[in-house]
Amino acid sequence: MTRHPVLRPGDMVRLGGATLTVAGLDSATARLADVTGAVFTTAVVRAARELIEHNRPYVRAGAVVGLTPLQRAVYDIIVRRTRRGNLHPFDTLPEAVRWLKQQA
Question: Which pTM was predicted?
Answer without folding.
Answer: 0.69
